[in-house]
Amino acid sequence: MIQQILFVFLAAVAIYFFTKKVMSIRRNILLGKDEKLNDNPNLRWKNMMLFALGQKKMFKNSLVAVLHFFVYAGFIIINIEILEIFLDGILGTHRLFLPILGTRLYSILISCFEILAVLVIVGCAVFLTRRNITKVNRFTKPELKGFPFRDANIILITEIVLMTLFLTMNACDFIFSLDYKLDNYQHFDGGVVSFYVASFVLLPFKFNNETLEVIERTCWWFHIAGIFAFLNYLPYSKHLHIILAFPNSFFARLNPVGQMENMVSIQKEVVLSFQPERASEFPADEASMKFGAKDVKDLSWKSLMDAYSCSECGRCTAACPANQTGKKLSPRKIMMDTRDRLEEVGNNIDKHGMDFTDNKTLLGDYVSVEELRACTTCNACVEQCPILISPLNIILELRRSLVMEDSNVPNEWAMMFGNMENNQAPWKFSNEDRANWIKS
Amino acid sequence: MGVKIMSEMFAAGESPEILFWVGCAGSFDQRVQRITKSFAEILNKVGVSFAILGSEEACTGDPARRAGNEFVFQMLAYQNIQTLNNYNIKKIVTTCPHCFNTLKNEYSALGGNYEVSHHSTFLQELIDAGKIKIKEGGSMKGKKITFHDSCYLGRANNIYEAPRKVLEALDADLVEMKSCRSNGLCCGAGGAQMFKEDEPGDKRINVARAEEAIATGASTVAAACPFCMIMWEDGVKQKNAEAQIELKDIAELIAERMS
Ligand code: SF4
Ligand code: SF4
């Protein structure tokens, strides 16, 4: 009974804090500007199935993709087992599903979970090696120093620990089932369960029943407590992508990636300066018109969801021509900066209310002009991202603010703009000479 | 060359099959003018009736928009759309992927709706229709050639096969660089980089790209974008590989070898 009360309490606390954080993330994302992204639902469902569930883009590198798939599928499927653990915890039962499913089916199911658990351990071990020993290039970039680097390791180690606890727990129950007359474990009177992977691990140790029970209970508690802790760590971690990858690929922009968002306010100004009679075609001006994005609130909500979804894998940065040639720009850093700044803005709202300003902005305090200027708008980052994030969209919005709000323009660009305005070409040639090539 | 200007055609009550959008680089840059001429020559030979806007053509505004200056972009777009709509233009072909992307994907939101093709697709269709034939001795058999994907053709608009099909018509030995198609490495020009100094770094992007081409052992690098061409010329020069690598637009390769 005490165990049950303790469990319900623990579960309630974990779920409360998780929900609270999720709601605050939702609020933060909705701080962004409106962008209509619910057209063409069929294609959107397809994208979600293909890119989030099917992890299509991961398969550009098949070894990593397969391992990642194990870790992910293993983790999701083992959650079915968590359901049983959860119910056991509340009801004070032990292996509730065993009598319902029968020893045989139950053993097979759990054995499948165990195989997955082993694959998860293998996957995580390989990933730890890639990050810490072989030091794959994209994991050693400056933006991963400190928390992001630890974050990845914490997640991988936690997963290994959780899986090990799960396997040990099962190994104990296997030995109990050999001696099914034990009072606490009367469920096993249907016969010997056989969890094929874990079954034999503890056999050689010849623990007595009391010790085994202590081990089993300890593993059970640490396992479920670990899951609750993991749940609450998730929203602070890059690991949030296991959830947000789904909505993020569902709401991905469907336009050709080369197409930039039209700025209706400026279009209106230009058109009306030539044809004032077309005023009715355009919406009325909004009170405060801002060009581009200086801070996170000026970005589309989708870009903000992108930021929370980013797994910090660095595929974008590895493909970025600017980054490859030693420039400061890293599209992954753009995503991480956006998330960090958005969290900061969110915390400010929690502490000081909606209207508080801390006089900081994403542009300048997080992302530097030098980074923004290095982008060739090549879309390599967009192409690479496994969960359909667009770092480029943020870069371009920041550039708009830089140029149109701050008039912060390098000399060459100022000249280019001047030429385009006066001669209709980026170079200083007379437009009259455009067709001169015909003559030669 | 027999190239007609749209205003003159319009005055004579004629309308061309297609409008050839030349673009700024194609009009003014001496190297790129050769690409423009090659494409015009192909059109003439095949007997496609076309016109250019000449001095009525303005930059599409792509570099301004991507640098962050929406005002300049909107001004130029407005002007171009007025011109194109006045002439009732329906079909546009261009040799520049940036112009292609802007005309095709961005002008429609501003009231400019046209059927826009890039010359790689246009050439491929002419080849498929049997209208372009390679002359005797024009084959590049045995010669290694590699194709550089332009970002605004490839990733931005998903055109990877058309330019390669055009090269296949030449029978050359097509080899791929380390990064190609959707993984292709940028030439370094896009996003108005072309018009300013690089940000601090340890290499120029076009040099990194030239190294990839040199590693293939190809004797010809084919491009399908005037800005890529300008960047490539410089990258290959930096690597002192001018003697070993010839840089050609797909239109030039075809024009030189068609009967
Ligand atoms: S679009 Fe910009 S940030 Fe993205 S890969 Fe290209 S240069 Fe890098
Ligand atoms: S933006 Fe996408 S590719 Fe880049 S680090 Fe984040 S998840 Fe990876």
Quick structural overview:
The complex is a heterodimer of chains A (440) and B (259). Chain A has 18 helices and no strands. Chain A is mainly alpha-helical and 440 residues long.
Biggest sheet of chain B: strands side by side, in what order?
Answer: 1-3-2-4-5
What's the total count of β strands of chain A?
A: 0
Largest β sheet strand count, sense and barrel closure of chain A: none
- What structural category arises from helix and sheet content of chain B? alpha/beta
- Average pLDDT, all residues of chain A: 92
Task: Count interface residues per chain for the largest interface.
Answer: A-B, 66 and 71 residues
Features:
heterodimer; A: 440 residues; Fumarate Reductase Iron-sulfur Protein, Chain B, domain 2; 2 domains; elongated; B: 259 residues; Rossmann fold; five-stranded parallel β-sheet; 11 helices; 9 strands; binds iron/sulfur cluster
